[in-house]
Amino acid sequence: MPEISDGSVQLMVTSPPYPMIEMWDNVFASGDPKIAKLWQKLEDDGQDGTVRQIYDAMHDYLSQVWGETYRVLVDGGIACINIGDATRRLNGKFQLFPNHSRIIEVCEKIGFTTLPYILWKKPTTKPKYKGKGAFLGSGFLPPNAYVTLDCEFILLFRKGNLRKFPVHDPDRYGSAFTKSQRDEWFSQIWALKGTKQTSSELERRTAAYPEEIAERLIKMFSIKGDTVLDPFLGSGTTAKIAMQNERSSVGYETDQNLLPTLTKRIKNDKIVNNVQIIRR
Ligand SMILES: C[S@@+](CC[C@H](N)C(=O)[O-])C[C@H]1O[C@@H](n2cnc3c(N)ncnc32)[C@H](O)[C@@H]1O
After folding, report:
1. Which of 6, 56, 142, 210 has the most CB atoms within 10 Å of its CB?
2. Mutate to test the pocket of ligand 1, among 28, 66, 204, 254 (most ligand atoms within 8 A of CB)
3. Cα(58) to centroid of ligand 1, in Å?
4. Rounded distance, CA 137 to CA 229, Å?
5. Which residues line ligand 1 (CB under 6 A)?
6. Cα three-residue angle 200-203-205, rounded to 5 degrees
7. Is the full-model pTM beyond 0.90?
């Protein structure tokens, strides 16, 4: 993120493309030609080791962004990463790809301190049998049914020490949350619906997260006047909510087709603060 100076961002809130989730395969393959080659290799050799290499390469791709996030955050800045694990049948084998634990390991190596994370509990989908839609006839017989993934993670990290503020800083005091907000937001499980059925084609295509998630995280971990970064803007939920809450916003998006709608979505809200969208 060469356009962003070291130590100039107070908060990062994002949801990247999820490794090993099919809808993001092309994004990873076009972002890194090595990943496209590895998928070809898997077709040829059908080896579990190649599956592992693909998974590693997808996380290497994301890791560059976590490293840059560390650089641009201020001392005491917070990074919030919404990520889901993936289940997938490859080479005839059904397995879990635990994206959340891989990202924690990578971020700790970069230098971040891991903080207690949030589980976003989505409305339950049907349990799966052998990775397929329903439990079918033998769904009540042990031991070959799988637990359904109905939670995503909101991982939380801090760079360096606690942020320091002047005594009675009016921006900080003016950003206080209420007691009921504190009790609800700082508990570990958030039971929230996904984006609405009525969400736009753009929001579905980018797997947008609910505005409520961005709103809570921004109010929990930044104060008025701060700058909030989203390195994977998608439909621009983070930028829109940051600006509605008197924060500035900066972000990146590689899919150029999203830009006109993304810009319109942000402008439609008659937001006056700064937003800077940088194309990769
Ligand atoms: C899960 S979506 C983000 C959804 C977003 N939180 C929202 O509410 O709309 C991930 C986005 O990252 C974008 N993307 C993928 N690789 C990228 C990269 N290297 N730099 C910037 N954006 C990237 C994709 O095009 C996609 O729009």
Report:
1. 210
2. 254
3. 14
4. 48
5. 15-17, 27, 31, 206-209, 231-232, 234-235, 237, 252-255, 258, 280
6. 105
7. yes
| Residue range 208-247, pLDDT digits in tens | 999 999 999 999 999 999 999 999 999 999 999 999 999 9
Closest CA to 78 of 160, 6, 1, 15: 160
* CA atoms within 13 A of residue 15's CA, in its CB half-sphere: 25
Residue nearest to ligand 1 atom 21, measured at CA = 253
Q: How far is the CA of 14 from the centre of ligand 1 (A)?
A: 8
Residues 6+ apart with CB under 8 A from 81: 12, 14, 15, 16, 66, 103, 107, 153, 154, 155, 157
Question: How far apart (Å, rounded) are the C-alpha atoms in residues 57 and 51?
Answer: 10
Q: Which of 149, 67, 78 is nearest to 117 (CA)?
A: 78
For residue 277, how many other CB atoms are within 10 A of its CB? 18
Torsion of CA 24, 30, 32, 34, to 10 degrees: 100
Give the distance (Å) from ligand 1 centre to CA of residue 230.
9
Give dist(CA 121, CA 176) in Å, integer. 26
Q: Is the Cα torsion angle 231, 234, 236, 242 positive or negative in sign?
A: negative
- Which residue's CA is minimally distant from atom 27 of ligand 1? 234
Q: Is 17 helix (H, G, I), strand (E, B) or coil?
A: coil
- For residue 114, what are the β-bridge partners? 157
User: Model confidence over 109-154: pLDDT tens digits?
Assistant: 999 999 999 999 988 666 555 555 555 555 678 888 889 999 999 9
Which SS3 state, helix, strand or coil, does residue 222 take?
A: coil
**Ligand 1 pocket, mutate which of 27, 196, 230, 264 (most atoms under 8 A from CB):** 27
